[in-house]
């Protein structure tokens, strides 16, 4: 009993902070915050060997062609283009052209907000209506991946902007819609209805080699 | 003046007894968020920058393929290679690899598998298109080109 009077019987907790600091620094250094973000794409199903490839009888005006050669030079609708970022507005104009709308797409046109209606060009040499419009993107085997993603980014960006405009949100907000949430899902479906994201990625040519 | 003389009785030290608690909180945060990397990446990885990024909805459905120049060119050469898990594979082996990855999932989720392609920016499209053809063959058609959010554009 005499012992307990001498000094306090407690563990010295001052170095605890130091130990915790050490562990903290270890985890800080080793952490790589997972980056599970990127450009999403759905590949077409594999061709059925028993069936001949379907004939493409689409009108040329309904196809928006983007070619990139092995020197990373762009050819858009048979015209050279230097600035990738111009693609986005070109694709938007192309998709929302309504050159020769049928009954369904007229209803679609009428459902668009006024700000989008004013962008419609009605150029007879561009796409008939969004349901027909296809963006064809072809690269060479020697095209750099950086260029490929830059172009794909612009093409998808054009569609996301259209979808966003349609339901009155920005493209960023549209992409972040949570499809598990019924309210968001309804918005998502509404925005995409009648305007499929038709980006066709053709097999690359072999001119440039690898 | 002596009226305003400072009282010196109070100690001016900051109590540090709560410091360990704060540090522990931070520590737990990082411990929980840390994902220890299970595979060592053996290829160069400079991901491209893009703006139209989408988040993956379910992490368990994602399998990663790394494509790029090997980090050890004296051993593996300078041609871009495909890394799956811990080994380099040929484009022909992608179907086999996809099937192995699908086997790890529940049966009803197998067709939803997403392949995250982590490709170095300097890679040429040839090898990527070969991989894509194989992925079509393996019926793993949902792909994601992993990229970093670009801030200078938009």
The strand line-up of the biggest sheet of chain A is 4-3-2-5-6
Structural class of chain B: alpha/beta
Query: Strand percentage of chain B, roughly?
Result: 15-25%
Largest sheet of chain A: 5 strands, mixed
| Cα-atom radius of gyration of chain B | 25 Å
Biggest interface in this structure?
A-B, 52 and 55 residues
Could you say what the CATH architecture of the domain at 49-149 in chain B is?
2-Layer Sandwich
CATH topology of the domain at 49-149 in chain B: Nucleotidyltransferase, domain 5
Number of H- or I-type helical stretches of chain B: 4
Which regions of chain B contain 5 or more consecutive residues with pLDDT less than 50?
Answer: none
Regarding CATH, which class of the domain at 49-149 in chain B? Alpha Beta
> Which consecutive residue ranges of chain A, at least 5 long each, have pLDDT under 50?
none
**Largest pleated sheet of chain B:** 5 strands, mixed
- Regarding quaternary structure, how should these chains be classified? heterodimer
- Could you say which structural class the secondary elements and strand pairing of chain A correspond to? alpha/beta
Description:
The complex is a heterodimer of chains A (210) and B (154). Chain A has helices spanning 2-5, 14-30, 87-95, 103-111, 114-117, 145-166, 171-175, 182-192, and strands at residues 37-42, 63-68, 74-76, 79-81, 134-138, 199-201. The mean pLDDT of chain A is 83. In chain A, strand 2 and strand 3 form a beta hairpin. Chain A has a domain at 60-201. Chain A is elongated, with a radius of gyration of 27 Å. In chain A, helix 3 (87-95) crosses helix 6 and helix 6 (145-166) crosses helix 8. Chain A is α/β, with parallel strands linked by helices and 210 residues long. Chain B is of the alpha/beta class and 154 residues long. Chain B has a domain at 49-149: Nucleotidyltransferase, domain 5 (2-Layer Sandwich), CATH 3.30.420. In chain B, 27% of the residues lie in helices and 20% in strands. Chain B has four helices and eight strands, in the order H-E-E-E-H-E-E-H-E-H-E-E. Chain B has helices spanning 19-33, 73-76, 94-103, 125-137; strands spanning 49-50, 54-55, 62-68, 81-84, 87-89, 114-119, 142-146, 148-149. The longest helix of chain B is centred in the first third of the chain and has 15 residues, at 19-33. The radius of gyration of chain B is 25 Å and the shape is elongated. At the A-B interface, helix 2, strand 1 and helix 6 of A face helix 1, strand 2, helix 4, strand 7 and strand 8 of B.
């Amino acid at each position: 009993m005499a012992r307990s009077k001498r000094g306090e019987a407690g563990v010295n907790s001052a170095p605890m902070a130091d130990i915790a600091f050490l562990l903290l620094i270890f985890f800080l250094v080793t952490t790589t915050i997972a980056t599970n973000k990127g450009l999403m794409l759905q590949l077409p199903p594999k061709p059925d060997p028993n069936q001949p490839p379907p004939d493409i009888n689409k009108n040329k005006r309904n196809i928006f062609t983007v070619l990139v050669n092995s020197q990373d030079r762009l050819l858009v609708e048979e015209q050279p283009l230097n600035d990738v970022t111009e693609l986005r507005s070109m694709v938007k104009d192309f998709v929302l052209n309504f050159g020769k709308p049928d009954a369904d797409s007229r209803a679609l046109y009428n459902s668009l907000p006024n700000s989008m209606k004013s962008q419609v060009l009605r150029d007879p040499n561009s796409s008939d209506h969004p349901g027909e419009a296809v963006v064809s993107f072809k690269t060479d085997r020697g095209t750099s991946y950086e260029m490929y993603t830059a172009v794909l980014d612009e093409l998808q960006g054009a569609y996301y902007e259209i979808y966003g405009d349609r339901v009155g949100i920005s493209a960023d907000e549209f992409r972040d819609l949570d499809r598990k949430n019924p309210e968001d899902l309804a918005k998502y479906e509404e925005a995409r209805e009648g305007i499929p994201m038709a980006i066709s990625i053709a097999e690359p040519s072999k001119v440039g080699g690898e | 003046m002596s009226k305003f003389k400072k009282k010196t009785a109070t100690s001016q030290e900051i109590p540090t007894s709560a410091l360990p608690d704060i540090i522990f909180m931070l520590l737990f945060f990082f411990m929980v968020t840390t994902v220890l990397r299970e595979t060592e990446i053996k290829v160069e990885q400079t991901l491209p920058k893009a703006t139209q990024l989408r988040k993956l909805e379910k992490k368990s459905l994602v399998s990663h393929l790394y494509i790029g120049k090997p980090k050890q060119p004296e051993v593996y050469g300078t041609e871009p290679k495909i890394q799956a898990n811990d080994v380099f594979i040929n484009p022909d082996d992608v179907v086999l690899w996809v099937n192995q990855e699908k086997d790890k999932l529940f049966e009803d989720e197998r067709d939803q598998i997403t392949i995250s392609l982590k490709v170095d920016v300097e890679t040429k499209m040839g090898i990527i298109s070969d991989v894509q053809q194989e992925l079509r063959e393996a019926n793993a058609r949902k792909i994601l080109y992993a990229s970093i959010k670009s801030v200078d554009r938009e």
